[in-house]
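Inverse folding, one chain.
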């Protein structure tokens, strides 16, 4: 019998409907897989008892014919989403022990659709990082290994626990958040599908904030169809979030199978810089050819302000982070270190509670917002951000989608780049522009390096056009026939 953990969400959904197994059996299989793979450190807080209780509730609904869209499907929840009564840490010491009295809108929607929460997944502290090395609860290991080597690789970040859990068959899908590439880059590193929808498509209410004008929730799965199913359940207007869109949510799964015949695919010259990794470039060329073979036409385009995207992001995001993280002061929730005065308590609590990368970004953000520097840095960055958005708007008048590499390299070693923040930030060079523009983007596994490590292709479309994005992603997925990790028997 095929291992239950190797099924896709779509396969499990159909087999649960046919009563070939129960939601509880499916959940137990994943809980056992989590126990066996503890060494990956993908979960901060497993929730086995909650999972079993919800699986039993799902079985009752399946029996009564009242199944939701994700009924009985075991998912992991990134530990940035507040979960009622369950520890939510954002992978930071300062929030260790915090149990929210409320549920994030996205995790509530997934629960309302019948999904089963397996636990809270590890991440870079406060979602700040590209390697999942900055978590207070220890780094996450990528389930993939380079050929002939035993050293551990990073899963990417910040949604590294989500990517590792899905890639390693510990969860059928997982929530991620993407501020500058934190769904797409780890999806590329771990050989799975990761989708960042249009900013405003998913509610941010109940998600621990990093950079409020950039943060967006999305699904991480092992197939494009699964991502479409999961995203539909996650979306929808939320009056609790002023940036949440009132637009009707399309049936993303319904557009699958339509192909790309007649679509115009943009190929931006700025994404092929001097020194681009040859294997990344080769895969990109292959992806372009796959789309041509499927009936699409390619159009060379220019996104001239791309070169300014990374410095713009690393001004805007830390500025917003310094403001958002001011609430962690030891007074209302989380850790507190007593001091001789109120100011001393603030300083000691934040010094003990935040890790190195978070402190670095708070300092950068506070500096660029300070008197005398606001106009020179933050205001200028916002103007450049508007130009980057205009580049994409102009491009989408000529093309239906844009295809690029997802990341400049495959997964790297856990000890690489740790002493060079700039080298780490460069991991986001291909993903940040779409985040600044608020457009949807997805990473689809396209192939393997000579060392047998995954590489992803990124698909970008115009705002609110996730349907075209899914069509292009599915065409790439079918052509790539990506060799996923072997599922445990």
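Residues assigned per position:
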């Amino acid at each position: 019998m095929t291992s239950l953990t190797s099924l896709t969400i779509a396969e499990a959904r159909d087999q649960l409907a046919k009563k070939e197994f129960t939601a509880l059996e499916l959940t137990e299989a994943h809980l056992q897989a989590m126990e066996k793979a503890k060494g990956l450190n993908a979960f901060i807080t497993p929730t086995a008892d909650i999972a079993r209780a919800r699986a039993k509730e799902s079985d009752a609904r399946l029996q009564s014919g009242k199944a939701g869209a994700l009924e009985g499907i075991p998912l992991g929840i990134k530990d940035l989403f507040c979960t009622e009564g369950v520890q939510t840490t954002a992978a930071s010491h300062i929030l260790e022990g915090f149990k929210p009295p409320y549920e994030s809108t996205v995790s509530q929607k997934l629960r309302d659709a019948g999904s089963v929460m397996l636990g809270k997944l590890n991440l870079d502290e406060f979602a700040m990082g590209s390697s999942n090395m900055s978590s207070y609860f220890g780094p996450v290991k990528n389930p993939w290994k380079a050929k002939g080597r035993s050293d551990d690789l990073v899963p990417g970040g910040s949604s590294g626990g989500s990517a590792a859990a899905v890639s390693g068959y510990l969860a059928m899908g997982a929530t991620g958040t993407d501020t500058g590439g934190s769904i797409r880059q780890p999806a590329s590193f771990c050989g799975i599908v990761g989708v960042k929808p249009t900013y405003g498509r998913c509610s941010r209410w109940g998600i621990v904030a990093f950079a409020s004008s950039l943060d967006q929730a999305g699904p991480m799965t092992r197939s494009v169809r699964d991502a479409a199913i999961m995203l539909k359940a996650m979306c929808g207007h939320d009056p609790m979030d002023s940036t949440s869109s009132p637009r009707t949510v399309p049936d993303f799964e319904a557009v699958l199978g339509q192909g790309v015949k007649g679509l115009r695919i943009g190929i931006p010259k700025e994404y092929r810089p001097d020194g681009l990794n040859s294997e990344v470039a080769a895969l990109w060329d292959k992806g372009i050819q796959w789309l041509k073979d499927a009936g699409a036409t390619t159009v060379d385009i220019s996104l001239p302000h791309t070169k300014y995207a990374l410095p713009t992001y690393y001004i805007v995001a830390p500025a917003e982070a310094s403001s958002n993280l001011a609430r962690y002061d030891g007074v209302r929730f989380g850790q507190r270190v007593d001091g001789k005065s109120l100011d001393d308590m603030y300083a000691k609590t934040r010094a003990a509670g935040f890790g190195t990368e978070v402190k670095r970004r708070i300092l950068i953000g506070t500096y660029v917002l300070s008197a005398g520097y606001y106009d020179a840095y933050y205001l200028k960055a916002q103007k450049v951000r508007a130009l980057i958005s205009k580049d994409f708007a102009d491009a989408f008048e000529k093309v239906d989608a844009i295809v690029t590499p997802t990341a400049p390299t495959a997964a790297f070693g856990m000890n690489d780049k740790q002493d060079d923040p700039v080298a780490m930030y460069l991991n986001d060079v291909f993903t940040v522009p779409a985040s600044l523009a608020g457009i949807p983007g997805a990473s689809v596994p396209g192939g393997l390096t000579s060392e047998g490590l995954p590489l992803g292709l990124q698909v970008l479309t115009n705002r609110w056009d996730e349907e075209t994005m899914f069509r292009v992603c599915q065409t790439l997925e079918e052509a790539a026939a990506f060799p996923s990790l072997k599922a445990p028997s």
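The chain has 15 helices and eleven strands. The first strand starts at residue 43 and ends at 46.
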